[in-house]
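Appendix C: a fully annotated inverse folding record. The material below is reproduced so that readers can follow the format used throughout the book. The structure is listed first as tokens, followed by the designed sequence.
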């Protein structure tokens, strides 16, 4: 199985605080789901369920999917983000779909069994409001989220532990690549349109560099 690719230069740094970051996930959370033999249509249909699953894992409340607002290829405007996400301390989810790499016999890289299928990447902002600050408790919460996401996604059973990858955004060597705050959130999630060559998490999710803009549109979801 070929795992979903991670951003260029990304290292899985352990969550930690820095001089300018109070919570390791305050700039966002990056989730890669290595879907097993799943097509684009199925992934699109699952997006509200993905949001609901993550929300449930953090709050233990099973909110209705009917209240979720979804937009394709166009982000919510700055006022909507401020009113519905930032002020209410709710989650904005940005979803991007990638193709699996075809297997290359020369380099022995890519996937034999996933050729022609897709997988999902997620960017989540506002999630730090619902996460603990204690390092051990936070680690356990992340493990719990992985279990929930594995339960609600078709993943490769022989490789379940690596089927869900969760990382911080804007930490470690990406500290200056992903600078996200309540006031710059709208600008950040629109970088795929305004600055597609910038090396950052949201551009990786939008696939701006890998496929020269021949990619799937981003999907934006939030609760209203």
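Designed amino acids, in order:
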């Amino acid at each position: 199985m070929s795992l979903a690719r991670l951003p260029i230069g990304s290292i899985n740094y352990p969550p930690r605080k820095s001089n300018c970051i109070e919570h390791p996930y305050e700039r966002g959370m990056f989730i890669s789901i290595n879907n097993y033999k799943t097509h684009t249509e199925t992934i699109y249909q699952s997006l509200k369920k993905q949001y609901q699953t993550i929300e449930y894992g953090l709050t233990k409340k099973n909110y209705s999917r009917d209240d979720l607002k979804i937009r394709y290829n166009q982000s919510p405007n700055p006022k909507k983000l401020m009113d519905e996400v930032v002020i209410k301390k709710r989650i904005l989810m940005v979803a991007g779909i990638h193709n699996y790499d075809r297997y290359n016999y020369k380099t022995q890289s890519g996937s034999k069994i996933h050729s022609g299928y897709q997988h999902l990447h997620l960017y989540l902002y506002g999630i730090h409001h619902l996460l603990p600050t204690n390092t051990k408790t936070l680690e356990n919460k992340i493990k719990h989220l992985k279990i929930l996401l594995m339960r609600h996604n078709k993943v490769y059973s022989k490789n379940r532990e690596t089927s869900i990858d969760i990382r911080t955004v804007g930490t470690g060597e990406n500290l200056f690549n992903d600078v996200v705050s309540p006031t710059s959130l709208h600008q950040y999630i629109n970088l795929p349109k305004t600055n597609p060559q910038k090396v950052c998490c949201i551009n990786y999710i939008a696939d701006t560099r890998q496929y020269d803009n021949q990619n799937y549109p981003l999907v934006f979801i939030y609760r209203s």
